[in-house]
Design brief:
Elements (H helix, E strand, L loop, with lengths): L5 E7 L2 H14 L5 E6 L6 H12 L15 E5 L4 E6 L6 H5 L3 H6 L3 E6 L5 H6 L2 E7 L5 E7 L1
Helix pairs in contact: 1-2
Length: 149
């Protein structure tokens, strides 16, 4: 990813703050379709951010959004956006990636595809419309950088 139209940095001090920030991030990711890579170490808050985005889009209540670590993909349908949340932590090869149907998801005109651990796959990074990086900033504080083409 080379040229970003929108770059924003945020800091949150709690899980509730990260959930609330999801609304601002959801606005930055419109209009669909978009494929976004979520970067951050284990426990950084990637799924918490997705909870906030899903809630802001009316696709799911925050409490209903869970990590797709073992199922690999969760799908949530909002009125105007279909949110796909992927977790590729357990995948090792491009061949495994192909079995998920990522192309079909990303090509849907109403799709917002949020991919945890997408940076493991150059093919995803090359086609991504942006990325969100999350870093621990001590305690419950998190630093977010949102970059969107």
């Amino acid at each position: 990813m080379s040229e970003f139209r929108k770059i924003k940095r945020f800091k949150t001090r709690s899980e509730a703050g990260t959930l609330a920030m999801g609304e601002r991030v959801a606005e930055m990711l419109a209009p669909a379709p978009k494929l976004i890579v979520l970067r951050g170490e284990l426990g950084a808050g990637k799924t918490t951010l997705v909870k906030g985005i899903a809630s802001a889009l009316g696709a799911a209540e925050a409490a209903d959004v869970t990590s797709p670590t073992f199922t690999l993909v969760h799908e949530y349908a909002g009125q105007t956006t279909r949110l796909y949340h992927l977790d590729l932590y357990r995948l090792e090869t491009e061949r495994e990636l192909l079995t998920l149907g990522l192309d079909e998801m990303a090509e849907s005109p109403d799709a917002l595809v949020l991919v945890e651990w997408g940076e493991k796959f150059p093919s995803i990074v090359a086609r991504a419309d942006g990325e969100i990086s999350i870093e621990h900033a001590g305690g419950d504080e998190r630093m977010f950088e949102v970059r969107v083409k």
